[in-house]
Amino acid sequence: MGNCMSPVNHSRPNSPVTAPASAALNEPTSSSATNQTGPTGLGDPNQRRTDRKGKDRASSTEDRPVGRLHSRKRSSMSGSSVLYNLRRYATTPNPTANLPPSLLLLSSPNAIAIFDAYPKAKYHFLVMPRHPFPPQSDPESRSSITSLESLEDLKSVLMKCSREVREEVLTAMANMAREVEEMIRDEMLKTEGFEWKIDVGFHAIPSMKHIHLHVISDDRIGSGLKKKHHHNSFRPDLGFFVPIMEVQRWIEDDSNMQERVDALSGAERLLHTPLTCHKCDEFMANMPKLKTHLEKHFKEEKEAALKHIAKHGRQRSSDEEIF
DNA sequence: GTTCTAGAAC
DNA sequence: GTTCTAGAAC
Question: What is the domain range of residue A285?
Fold first, then answer.
């Protein structure tokens, strides 16, 4: 029980979300990615979240007698395990069989993509490397080219992994992020009739263990977006959100790596930046006002895009497809 | 990461 | 009176 609710909530009853075969830059391994054929409705966060929450609760120790001491101990334990949830997913053997489709979007020999539990936009996914992490030359291998500890966050991948390993890890993540982006664009077209921007990047200071890459649509309309620091943490112009393309430039020229890692650690203050719209930079007195404002942006963007499509038969020129 | 809640802002 | 934020607790 609890998971019987269908995650499918869109008009197309059974259109499988299949990854495109067009990932030109992909290594051979990513072609063996397993695509879930289950859920469409990539952007139905609320329902999905309810599902999973129910499941988590069911597996906890809620049936024990209630008592202050016990409940304090229990909740603090489950609280800290939250920090390790991603690591649990990333180390699950055979994710397709062992992780529910309401959680898992994609899996390949060295990476998985999951639904963010508290989405900060209409589409919000996390991509992470699996562990053990097989060498890309031999995706079937059960040995890992790096330790679990070295995959704790971006900083540890940059500082603790060899040049080769960090390149393989980041490439695997980038390739899967590209597949996720394609799936999102498909879904955007199906549900709204147009495509909009998607951001791909890391948080400078993540709050859960195991390195994860955010793939998030730039509408920023999501049930999980409640605080100023949520919004600031995804602004590509502030510095707390680090686009993957920037990290890839870093590893091409790793001469300043220590400096860059130090800058990551100092990024906390950026979360306290005054609340302004990430699209037009207008000051927002509070979160409810921002939310209303973002809805307006989205509505206007959609209207403009649909008008443009009606007139020209397509949404945009190819030179805009650069992210 | 989220939830809870006291006190500020309205 | 209600809404909202930010910090403590989990």
Answer: 84-315
Is residue A42, in this structure, part of any structural domain at all? no
- The answer to whether position A14 is within a domain reads no
Question: For residue A322, is it within any domain?
Answer: no
Per-residue pLDDT reduced to its tens digit, A137-191: 999 999 999 999 999 999 999 999 999 999 999 999 999 999 999 999 999 999 9
Is position A211 within any domain? yes
Measuring from the CA of residue A205 to each C1' atom, give the nucleotide at the shortest distance.
Answer: B1
Assign residue A149 the CATH number of its domain: 3.30.428.10
**Gap between the Cα atoms of A318 and A323, Å rounded:** 11
Which residues sit close to strand B, CB under 7 Å?
A 79, 82-83, 117-118, 203, 206-208, 224, 226-227, 229-230, 233, 285
- What pLDDT, on a 0 to 100 scale, did the predictor assign at position A80? 65
Q: What is the DSSP letter of A33?
A: P
Question: How far, in Å, CA of A152 to CA of A154, rounded?
Answer: 7
